């Protein structure tokens, strides 16, 4: 076998491995294999309290009015940090919308990571409109949520009880079933 044939063979094997990995990942997402990323509820002494400065994290709503996480204290809160370019974020949004419409006693904060470069208010709004999603979005234009909550991956979802304690956290896509289970933990 000459050098060219060896190169073509290696390229073919590499492409086949990538295709296999991609479809395996898609299959595992649909089966909920990554739902284990959600932390279990901790005993009271181990619950992660949100620092006061974290509740001061500011973001803006669709009307450019400034809001803070502390504006929502006293109710269970689901904070979903996302971006429109993030495929797992896009994939979980329809399930989040469905649960948002069902859970009237829970505050949902869909906080877009708006950096002004890879993500803008316009790209986020365009995604919501194109997908025909009916959810209120907020914009983390100064990266306060990102830095105060140390968001390392998108999507990331926090489940905060009425007292301001983080009862669960998920880095990565979650299913409707897991979302509902975690909401029960913060009610």
TrEMBL record:
InterPro entries: AhpC/TSA, Thioredoxin-like_sf, Thioredoxin_domain, Thioredoxin_ResA/DsbE_sf
UniProt GO MF annotations: antioxidant activity; oxidoreductase activity
Record bears the keyword Transmembrane helix: yes
Organism annotation: Vagococcus silagei
Keywords: Disulfide bond, Membrane, Transmembrane, Transmembrane helix
Name the UniProt record assigns to this protein: TlpA family protein disulfide reductase
Superkingdom of the source species: Bacteria
A Pfam short name: AhpC-TSA
Transmembrane segments: 7-28
Domain Thioredoxin: start-end pairs: 36-187
